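hiii, so i know i said id send this last week but things got crazy w the move. better late than never?? heres the sequnce for the chain we talked about at the cafe, plus the structure i predicted for it. fair warning i was half asleep when i ran it
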Amino acid sequence: MKSLLILFAFAMIISPIQAQNITLPLWNGTPPLQKEMDLKEEVVSEGIVRIGNVQIPTIEVYLPAKQIATGQAVVIFPGGGYGILAYDWEGTDFAKWLNSQGIAGIVVKYRLPKSASLTDPKEVPLMDAQRAIRLVRQNASGWNIDPTKVGIMGFSAGGHLASTLSTQYSHNVDRTMDAIDALSARPDFSILAYPVITFVNPAIHSGSMKALLGDNDTDDLKKRFSAELNVTEETPPTFLVHAGDDTGVPVENSLLYYAALRTKRVATSLHVYPNGGHGFAFGLGKGPVENWRNVLLDWMEAL
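okay and structure toks below
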């Protein structure tokens, strides 16, 4: 009996540590721009967890121990060409690593424009991204986060979403608003890893554009969703990392965004490694690119 009491007391002590992983829906009820359909989310785990046909978008929150918390938070958008989400490879794995550095990591399971349930697919990823950062700010006090230190991180097509949020954080569509919408969706900083940026330059990643815009690929929409054309002085400070041998999303995407940021005098840091290919994530076993996370941490500390 005494042993059971000790185990119970120990469980009560460690339970706050175990409760650091929280999952919340982005929206109450049916999300905006979505109709009720009997569609199921698709999850495939074959080395990498791939999620498709998202119907209930969420944030999965990983919080560091309070003793090491810096107050910074990073909202993470996994890539996958707007067709799937590489959910652990470019999502939860990074959230857990950020926790080890005292930084909150929040992974967004955002809706993908290829879902048949969406009424205006091109607007939905950005809407979910805006909602995610607003939810983090709403819960900042309870999560030991400084609401002025909430940044974003995006990989590949998730990088396109992150750059779109960085340049269109105040964009609105006609929908019912609530109190959370009064909070700012502007990121305090942006981290873009091998991002899709342009829909107008020859360096275009046609798969991402086709998935987001479908057949509605007018010149105006291509320009709207080319982040390098939408940078302003209010675009957040940005860290860019890319591999020169990336044949999936050419490095010119990062170069275009870097040049646009420089033109508007936005603080930016660009890191191009000769090798790494596309989708290197942590870059483990791929040579010097493996060190990019340490360079990132130095940049984040300097913020």
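btw The helical segments are 2-18, 88-100, 124-138, 157-168, 206-213, 219-224, 252-263, 292-302. thought thatd interest u
miss u guys!!
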